[in-house]
Specification:
46% helix; globular; alpha/beta; 3 domains; 15 strands; 19 helices; Rossmann fold; Helicase, Ruva Protein, domain 3; Beta-Lactamase; five-stranded parallel sheet; 15% strand
């Protein structure tokens, strides 16, 4: 590689540092220049977020990679790279699993990555993340000039520093400082991230930012499984109340006789079984946010009392004459058409208008385009870690099937599908391959169902899914236990240690599986 070639590749990146560009465009140009200089099949930029590496940009990797979250402790290559300050090339015969095995685009079959270069990015003397280069040819990086690569790394660090400084300037107000703190708190509590890049998803995130800065009551609407609770969490996390509790109540999960007590509390002796005073959700959420999921299920008598609390902030526990003043921001969610419920006399019109001060619609998954692949990647990585696998990939026909499907159950259906399919595929491939590939056949998605048969088909499919899932779980548990016993020469105590289980729990599992 000539000095002229290096200069030609780096000059545009230097010029970009002074330009007003979106973050994703800066990162895209960075990876494009990286691959122009160094002959890789794939490149990625990952940011270190606590103990997790988050892909910010990819080039040459499967689209679902952007949705994955790589826990550093699960990936020894990443762990070694982050412990260094200079680039590192892994031997082609390294036994350490590569996180990108099976994810390189344009490669037929389950070929693993054979040549891997990792470059830690240091910002203000601390590891910010990684730049990675990968190739299926084990000799691809033999000619790489490490001096040139080190120069590129310096420019990469400058690029991410510019992005970070721009972001810092955007957080100068008190509201933005609260937002950053809320994100840190949410990260510490392992809350689910809202993943997506489609126009409907971006619009939703913009709406969340707008309403979070206020104290307005929000009514979140959307189909079952779209993630309405995640939206409520995000609104609270970005609000000035983020340091106070977020209390949730699923109104559909309680019998009518208990809903009022759950909301407003009760005093001892108020009814049979009330053996002590108890605070309700409103009092627990004082100063913070109360999220009422499936609010359309509230009985009319409770709706009237809820309206009173929303109007003046005062409530009475069941059986008490004393009033309690509360300061609560209310977020409600429903998959019902509340306007239609009002017309049918099942929901109070005055409460409906009080709840829908700021209506927020969460788009169904079928309207979010390629977000389905990002979400699939996120759920795949969760299941890879849970099942103790080295890698799970989506075959091309599986990606196409995910994009074609209409997703009546939305994100929740996708999450369950990925978990079920990974488990079933693992049970079938008992040799525990290095790379577990999920095909369209593994997903078993029924596409283009007629609307007339949707309800019946969905009921039958749900029953079949439950049966398939149970049998797949049982088969996997039996395989794991039998294999562990074989490795431990039928020593149950040793098998329990290997599986990370208590001996008594292992015995109970063995009896349930008919092995003891």
């Amino acid at each position: 590689m000539t000095a002229r070639a290096v200069l030609d590749a780096l000059t545009p990146l230097v010029q970009d540092l002074s330009r007003d560009l979106p973050d994703h465009e800066r990162y895209r140009r960075l990876l494009s220049s990286l691959r122009a200089l160094f002959p890789a099949d794939a490149a990625a930029l990952l940011r270190l977020d606590g103990d997790v590496l988050v892909p910010l940009a990819i080039d040459g990797l499967s689209s679902d990679t952007l949705g994955r979250r790589f826990r550093v402790s699960d990936h020894p290559r990443f762990e070694q790279l982050l412990a260094r300050t200079e680039p590192m090339r892994f031997p082609a015969d390294s036994e350490l699993p590569d996180p990108y095995d099976g994810l390189v685009q344009g490669v037929d079959g389950n070929l693993a990555v054979h040549d891997c270069l990792g470059c830690p990015l240091m910002v203000r003397g601390r590891p910010w993340g990684l730049l990675t280069l990968d190739a299926v040819d084990p000799a691809r990086f033999d000619s790489v000039d490490m001096t040139s690569l080190q120069a590129f790394l310096s420019l990469g660090a400058a690029t991410v520093s510019v992005v970070e400084r721009i972001d810092t300037l955007a957080r100068t107000s008190e509201q933005e400082r609260n937002r950053a703190e809320a994100y840190r708190q949410a990260s510490g509590q392992s809350r689910r991230e809202m993943i997506g890049g489609s126009a409907p998803h971006r619009h939703l995130m913009e709406e969340i930012e707008v309403v979070a800065s206020s104290d307005l009551t929000v009514l979140i609407t959307g189909e079952t499984g779209v993630g309405k609770e995640l939206v409520a969490n995000a609104i609270h996390a970005l609000s000035s109340r983020s340091g106070k509790p977020l209390i949730s109540l699923n109104c559909a999960a309680l019998p009518d006789t208990l809903v009022e007590s759950e909301l407003f509390g009760h005093v001892r002796g108020a009814f049979s079984g009330a053996s002590s005073d108890r605070r309700g959700k409103f009092e627990l959420a004082d100063g913070g946010t109360l999220f009422l999921d499936e609010v359309g299920e509230l009985p009319l008598v409770v709706q009237a009392k809820l309206l009173r609390v929303l109007q003046n902030g005062q409530l009475q526990r069941i059986g008490s004459d004393n009033e309690h003043q509360v300061d609560v921001r209310l977020i409600a969610a429903t998959n019902r058409d509340l306007a239609e419920e009002v017309r049918a006399g099942r929901f109070r019109a005055d409460l409906y208008h009080r709840l829908s001060v700021y209506p927020l619609r969460v788009p169904p998954l079928r309207e979010r385009g390629r977000d389905v692949l990002l979400l699939a990647g996120f759920f795949i990585e969760e299941n890879r870690s849970r099942l103790g696998l080295l890698s799970i990939r989506l075959a091309a026909d599986a990606q196409a099937a995910l994009l074609r499907y209409s997703w009546p159950g939305n994100v929740r259906e996708l999450e369950h599908l990925i978990g079920r399919s990974a488990l079933k595929a693992l049970a079938i491939n008992r040799d525990r391959r290095r790379i577990l590939t999920l095909t369209a056949a593994d997903l078993a998605l029924a596409v283009n169902r007629s609307e007339a048969g949707d309800a019946a088909t969905h009921t039958v499919a749900t029953r079949n899914v439950e049966l398939d899932f149970r049998s797949a779980v049982t088969a996997y548990e039996r395989t794991m236990l039998v294999d562990a016993l074989a490795r431990a020469n039928q020593n149950w105590a040793a098998a329990a240690r290997e599986l990370g289980m208590d001996r008594a729990n292992l015995n109970r599992l063995a009896r349930r599986l008919g092995l003891k």
